[in-house]
Specification:
The chain is an alpha/beta fold and 699 residues long. It contains 30 helices and 14 strands. It has a 6-stranded mixed sheet with strand order 3-5-6-7-4-8, with helices on both faces.
């Protein structure tokens, strides 16, 4: 019959009891060192004889012998090998502690493990009000040689392993300045370390309970084979080569499977993952949280995964940026950072491997849409998944969340069937809500209630605009299904320039195109983008393009000539920096894979190299007489009371206005009618048109 398996907790407690016995013997020896005469201790003062021995460097052995104490603490009963190689030994091995550091750590932890030891400590330093053992006391407690005590002092410094890894915390001493000498600082051991020494499963410290957690098991994400192999190799290198401290940076949008990919790679390497989300971490708490996270990961022998998607640019986030930079340089363990953009990690060490998680290809997204609709119990037109795949490039996580949200909204409608049909409008709105972009800081959303039926433009302009719509709608089929993406390494974005006099419908058509394509459109606020500080304009533009790609929106640059102006001959530093901004814009526009619309009233002011990068250039002319008459007619809502016959043809012939001016005149006439008889008349329209012409300086 085989012997029963040893109880791990009983072994840990046996080892703990043995270690506490050693601390008790340390205290006996410490008491012997503080005795003044062989016939007994002197109490609270130090005797002349002891002072002489200390100054002369004489050994303290005679005083110990007078008390009947051994010079070195006897080992007592030998502990079980399993226990002494248990919590403390494993902790020392995982953090690379020396024998001296391990003894100091346990001596600092002892009063938190035993009330008797705590009382003996306070008696030894003759101060019952103080609960934290000072550095000097701990050093003298376990060291006989003064040089060893000095080495013990050094072990407590901030650069030492104990403090740097969060195994101890140092506190100011009462009655000293805010920066007291190290020898007088109090030492405590965090509760997670105490729990480890007691043989308990380690638990995150206070403040990290909701942020630091084991990564849950998840399905292995469907990634390209090359990406999976690169991630596996990078993670194994980070686990094996702790001296080089390589870092793994996983780049991908939220929902792209970053966490699941890291968990799967770690599982294949035989380790588990601990995660910490930095986005909702207060900057002032960042340093402490990262220190605790690193300690927990090393104690558990796990890979630490940090996620960061929010930008670190604002000044209020500087504390997090500095703390992350310091932690990444000094954490001696496998570390993975997941982020949406490497721009957020520009301060991190160069010793890192970047693994980019791509979005699924169009055919793969088509399949995922169909699977998600079936899983949610939704009916859909057969061509809807392909249409969605061509219009939106979303992460797998976002796709599933959007379908579930839409299904819930459809089932809440009165009289909804068990298997409702997908509403594309609800679906598009859910996609925009879950894009998680930060464009609102630098751009404003633009919406319109108009449609193609409200457009009054020359036939050749309308035909050109329909071609723009076709390029936007079928770009996935052309680039992905028909292989043009391999032929074009850059410049796949759809950049359109709408030029023409003010009021000719440029902004209106941009809004109609966005609505027709089911895309949100954001107007870039140049006042928030252009900065007088060198490099800030480029940084702001970079953020705009990054967030636009993330949000799957159309970028709208109004009065683009002010931003995309001609480069000039460099005659001063101002010229050089202005040209740098234009050069950066040209690069980003070429790299941008989305759709952007620019409007200008002065096309000749645009840089020539920029014009070559435009896919479409559409000129909006001033309307002719027939077009002006039609604009007068279409601008008047059906709900407005009016005369049966209004002189639209005469208004179009007499007043040479743009569509914007005609809109203003009709609105002015409506207010005239509201103030008068409550009816729109020919006289009121002429009065409003004359007023508009005067404001234009033409009457």
């Amino acid at each position: 019959m085989s012997p029963p398996a040893p109880d791990p907790l009983a072994q840990a407690l046996a080892g703990l009891d043995w270690l506490l016995g050693r601390v008790t013997r340390y205290l006996e020896r410490y008491g012997a060192r503080l005795t003044g005469r062989p016939d007994g201790p002197t109490g609270a003062h130090t005797s002349v004889e002891e002072a002489r021995r200390i100054l002369s460097g004489a050994a303290l052995h005679p005083a110990a012998a007078a008390l009947g104490l051994s010079v070195d603490p006897p080992p007592g009963r030998p502990p079980p090998p399993e226990s002494i190689a248990g919590p403390l030994a494993r902790l020392a091995a995982r953090f690379g502690l020396s024998a001296l550091e391990a003894r100091l750590l346990f001596a600092a932890a002892a009063p938190g493990l035993s009330l008797d030891i705590a009382r003996l400590y306070t008696f030894a330093w003759a101060d019952f009000t103080r609960k934290q053992p000072p550095v000097g006391f701990l050093a003298e407690l376990i060291c006989d040689d003064p040089r060893a005590a000095l080495a013990a002092h050094a072990a407590f410094r901030a650069r030492g392993t104990l403090a740097r890894c969060g195994l101890i915390a140092l506190h100011p001493a009462d009655g000293w300045t805010p920066d007291p000498p190290l020898v007088h600082r109090g030492v405590t051991v965090p509760e997670p370390v105490m729990a480890w020494l007691r043989g308990e499963p380690p638990a995150p410290g206070a403040g990290l309970v909701h942020r630091l957690a084991p990564a849950p098991d998840a399905e292995d994400p469907e990634l390209p084979e090359a990406v999976t192999a690169r991630l596996d190799e990078a993670l194994r290198q980070a686990i094996d080569d702790l001296d080089g401290r390589p870092r793994v940076v996983v780049v991908g949008l939220p929902g792209s499977g970053r966490r699941a990919a890291v968990v799967a790679a770690a599982r294949r390497a035989g380790v588990e993952v601990l995660t910490l989300d930095l986005d909702d971490l207060p900057p002032e708490a960042a340093a402490g949280a990262l220190l605790a996270a690193g300690r927990e990961a090393r104690m558990r022998g796990r890979v630490l995964l940090l996620t960061l998607d929010a930008t670190l640019d604002p000044p209020e986030r500087k504390g997090l940026s500095v703390a992350l930079d310091h932690f990444a340089r000094h954490h001696a363990g496998p570390l993975v950072l997941a982020t949406a953009s490497t721009d957020r990690l520009d301060r991190l060490p160069d010793a890192r491997v970047e693994v980019v998680l791509p979005l699924p290809e169009a055919h793969e997204q088509d399949r995922r849409w169909r699977d998600a609709f079936a899983e949610a119990g939704l009916r859909h037109p057969d061509d809807l998944p392909a249409t969605l795949a061509s219009q939106f490039s979303v992460t797998p996580g976002t796709l599933r969340a959007v379908v579930l949200e839409t299904a819930e909204a459809l089932r809440l409608r009165p009289g909804a069937p068990l298997r409702p049909e997908v509403d594309p409008v609800l679906l598009a709105e859910a996609i925009h809500r879950r894009s998680g972009h930060a464009l609102g800081a630098l751009a404003e959303p633009v919406t319109t209630t108009l449609n193609w039926g409200d457009v009054v433009l020359p036939d050749e302009v309308v035909e050109r605009l329909r071609e723009v719509r076709a390029h936007a709608r079928y770009r996935t089929r052309v680039f992905d299904d028909w292989g043009f993406r391999r032929k074009l390494s850059y410049g796949r974005g759809l950049t359109c320039l709408f030029s023409g006099p003010p009021g000719t419908g440029k902004t209106m058509m941009a809004g109609i195109l966005a609505r027709d394509l089911g895309r949100a459109m954001y107007k870039v606020d140049l006042s928030r983008v252009v900065s007088k500080w060198v490099g800030e304009t480029e940084k702001n533009l970079g953020r705009i393009f990054d967030e636009a790609a993330r949000a799957q929106v159309i970028l709208f640059f109004d009065e683009a000539d002010s931003l995309f102006a001609r480069r000039t001959e460099v005659k001063s530093s101002n010229d050089r920096f202005a040209n740098m901004e234009v050069n950066y814009l040209l690069q980003r526009m070429e790299q941008y894979d989305g759709m952007s619309i620019l409007t200008t009233n002065f096309e000749r002011g645009l840089d020539a190299a920029f014009k070559r990068r435009l896919r479409f250039r559409v000129h909006f002319p001033l309307p002719e007489e027939a077009e002006r008459a039609e604009l007068w007619r279409r601008m008047i809502p059906d709900e407005l009371p009016r005369d049966a016959e209004l002189p639209f043809a005469r208004l179009g012939r007499r007043y040479k206005m743009s569509g914007g001016n005609i809109k203003n005149a009709v609105l002015r006439a409506a207010f005239y009618a509201a103030e008068g008889e409550g009816r729109l008349t020919s006289a009121l329209l002429r009065k409003a048109a004359d007023a508009e012409m005067r404001e234009m300086g033409r009457l």
